[in-house]
Every structure is written in C-alpha cells, then in structure tokens.
Specification:
about 160 residues; alpha+beta; Chemotaxis protein chec; two-stranded antiparallel sheet; 6 helices; 10 strands; globular; disordered N terminus; cytoplasm; repeat
Length: about 160
C-alpha cells in the first residue's frame, strides 16, 4: 500500500505486456506499473516458473506473513528459504528499467523475450516460452480452477 496525501492506496497490477531483456539484463517496467512503485522493488523466484516483483510495502507485508510461519515446520522453512533466498532488491532507473539478477535469469531460463503479467499486489515476469507453455496447459482448466476457488471462498 502506498500513502498519498493521507490516503492509503492499494497497488493494483493488471494487464499483460511484452518486453525484451536488453544485453545487460535490464527489463523495461510498463509505465502503468511504474506509477505504483518507489525507486526500488523486490523480485523473487516465484511459483510456476516465473519471477514475482513487489513494491516495497507489499514486499514488507509478504515478509511479515512469512515470519509468522512456524520455524519448526520443515515445509514452512523450505518455503521461506525459497522465497527470501532467491530474492533481490532492484532499483528502477530513470528510464523505468530494472536489472534482473543473473541468478534469477539463469534459474528461470530467461532468454530475451519476456511477458509481464499483473497479479493484483505484485506482477510476474515470465520467460516468454515458459509463459506460453503455462498458458496452453492451464487455460483449459480455468473453469475447474474457478469452481475450486469458489468452494474455498465459501468455506
């Protein structure tokens, strides 16, 4: 959440954009997203083969939730380790670009073409080939996902 003139505003990332990594591993952030970011964002390796990018306040909220997980639980420790251990703070330069860390590019198989997808409180950065494959596999299950989520919301 960002504070603006005493009002608290939720960040809301929506839409799909396509941009290329430049030779120095910099990626242009969509201008629609830049308006909701400070000079730094947090990027972590995420689920389904993508990276997730969070504005500072949303990142702090996520870390706060992760800190509430029981450290005695093996799965909780592994999850926290994977999210925080594979994260990095990235600055946004004057041209609206971020420098993706080499380890994230290598781990997720980025080449040049990227897809940037809004996901409410964060946005995802996908290698184009991985995104296309994921989309192809999951779109046929969209109705099933909706039914399952409806059941979760009603519980």
């Amino acid at each position: 959440m960002e504070q603006s003139g005493g009002n608290i505003q939720m960040v809301m990332f929506t839409g799909e954009y396509r941009h290329n990594l430049d030779p120095k591993n910099r990626l242009i952030i969509p201008s629609k997203y830049r308006d909701q970011l400070t000079t730094k964002i947090y990027i972590t390796e995420w689920m389904d083969g993508c990276l997730a990018a969070f504005a500072e306040n949303e990142w702090n909220e996520l870390v706060s939730k992760l800190n509430k997980l029981p450290i005695t639980n093996k799965k909780a420790r592994a999850f926290v380790r994977s999210i925080l251990g594979k994260s990095d703070e990235c600055g946004v330069d004057n041209q609206g670009r971020i420098l993706l860390p080499q380890f994230q590019i290598s781990d997720r198989g980025f080449e040049k073409a990227c897809v940037i997808v809004g996901a409410s409180d964060h946005f995802e950065i996908w290698p184009e080939k991985v995104f296309e494959q994921y989309n192809e596999e999951s779109m046929g299950e969209l109705e099933d996902f909706a039914e399952d989520l409806t059941e979760l919301l009603q519980a």
